[in-house]
Design a protein that fits this description.
With 435 residues, the chain is of the alpha+beta class. Helix 3 packs across helix 11. The strands form 5 sheets. Strands 5, 6, 7, 8 and 9 form a 5-stranded mixed β-sheet that branches. A 4-stranded antiparallel β-sheet has the order 10-11-12-13, with no helix packed on it. Strands 14-15-16 form a 3-stranded antiparallel β-sheet. The longest helix is centred in the last third of the chain and has 24 residues.
Length: 435
């Protein structure tokens, strides 16, 4: 593999860097399949002015030339394009990791990464004259609402090149599946196919408990797909898209905008855009967050989220408790009023099995920081920050080889009894005799 991709295993930035390493490291030369001993050609005899002249034997190195590596890499790219060679390696390594590591795949996350090209998008007379005809321009837009002032903000980042869409185990920080596209391909458009392929082919996919992503993938259909089809909880950040009421001059920016939870009746239970359920005291107008009691997966078509009256749960004095019960048409007794949110009857973008902001939601979402560390390893450890790769097929092959190295190192550490070192790319793996 080191021969195939400019020293991916040893993280060489160029062919020349790898050739210099091979020239001074006979052990690496032998691992790569070359004879570590230099060869000696036979002496050359020739006539010169009627006299026989013998030239001394030439001693040569077995280190191949850079053109050999270029041609070999071209063959690997062609095999990936025609047969999916590298993608098949990813699948085999993934299956081995599932078998070797009991908890592997329990916590998954997704993230997109810009693979900026150092080439340009200028085109000559035809498409083939472009410096990188497969690449195009990508645009990533982030927007939100300032919680203090209520002002809407937006940030736009653009790049020329490609996009990496990555699914990884966020606990062990090991890749699981990937897709490389042109930069213009959107994450919401690529993810459905990745999910179908991953959970359809992934061994023991039923062990996956949660799938985290940033707010760019905040989509009702996607969250519904994860829970309804595979029983995977989606700790995905929620975009603030409600506009009505945010620009009112007398609005308190510290207070979230709320809507009635049950619009078919006059009630005091409301919710905000992130699915946080509260009650408004009929007597004082005070807003209190209702006490989250858990998710009931067996109730209703898709499950229900249960909340309890905060006055009863936290032993608070509520002057409007009676009026609240009458508005809800309930007689709860000393335990207090119970409110259930049926997922099948509410907005699936806002309401999920693990409510936004709950401790379990925060634990799942915070694990997404692993995606940033994986991306950093790709940038600096595997030199994608300074690459000169041109062409979609070549980029897909190079990314696949880098991810395969990560997975192979993780598998080797796991088999050596060092699961805590699975994310390491520099630690030596102790030898284990399996014979």
């Amino acid at each position: 593999m080191a021969r195939a991709d400019r020293g991916v295993v040893f993280q060489h930035a160029s062919i020349q860097s790898l050739l210099r390493e091979l020239g001074r490291n006979p052990a690496l030369l032998e691992i790569c399949g070359f004879d570590p001993l230099p060869f000696q050609a036979a002496p050359v005899r020739e006539l010169h002015d009627g006299h026989a002249v013998t030239h001394p034997a030439r001693v040569g190195s077995t280190v191949p030339g850079h053109w050999n590596f270029s041609r070999f890499l071209g063959s690997v790219v062609r095999l990936e394009d025609e047969r999916g060679l590298v993608s098949g390696m990813i699948g085999s390594l993934r299956s081995a990791l599932f078998e070797e590591v009991p908890g592997f795949g329990r916590h998954l996350g997704q993230d997109g990464k810009a693979l900026a090209s150092h080439w340009t998008g200028r085109v000559g007379e035809g498409k083939d004259n472009a410096s990188d005809p497969d690449a195009d321009w990508g645009r990533h837009e982030t927007s939100g609402v300032n919680g203090r002032t209520g002002a809407i903000w937006k940030k736009v980042t653009s790049w020329f090149g490609y996009g990496l869409h990555l699914i990884a185990d966020t606990h062990h920080e090991v890749p699981v599946a990937f897709a490389v596209t042109r930069a213009s391909a959107s994450e919401p458009g690529v993810l459905p196919g990745m999910l179908e392929e991953s959970f359809g082919k992934m061994p023991r996919a039923e062990r996956c408990a949660d799938f985290s992503a940033d707010r760019g993938l905040d989509n009702a259909a996607r969250k519904k797909q994860l829970w309804d089809r595979w029983a995977i909880r989606p700790p995905i950040d929620t975009r603030l898209m409600w506009r009505v009421g945010k620009e009112e001059p007398d609005r308190d920016p510290e207070q979230p905008i709320t809507r009635v939870l049950f619009p078919e009746r006059t009630d005091v239970v409301v919710h905000d855009e992130r699915g946080r359920v509260s009650c408004i005291c009929p007597a004082t107008g005070e807003i209190r967050a209702m006490a989250f009691q858990g998710f009931e997966a067996g109730r209703g078509a898709c499950g229900t989220i249960e909340y309890r009256c905060p006055a009863a749960a936290f032993d608070l004095d509520c002057k409007g408790r009676g009026a609240c019960h009458r508005a809800g048409g309930v007689k709860p007794g000393a335990y207090g009023r119970i409110v259930r949110v049926d997922l099948d009857k509410h907005d699936r973008r806002i309401f999920t099995p693990t409510p936004w902001g709950s401790p379990s939601w925060r634990r799942g979402y915070n694990r997404r920081s692993a995606m940033e560390r994986i991306n950093a390893r790709l940038d600096r450890g595997f030199n994608f920050e300074t690459h000169y790769i041109r062409g979609l097929a070549r980029m897909k092959t190079r990314v696949g080889l880098a991810l395969a190295v990560m997975m192979a190192m993780a598998l080797a550490h796991a088999r050596a009894g060092r699961a805590e070192r699975m994310r390491s790319l520099v630690g030596a793996v102790p030898y284990r005799d399996t014979g």
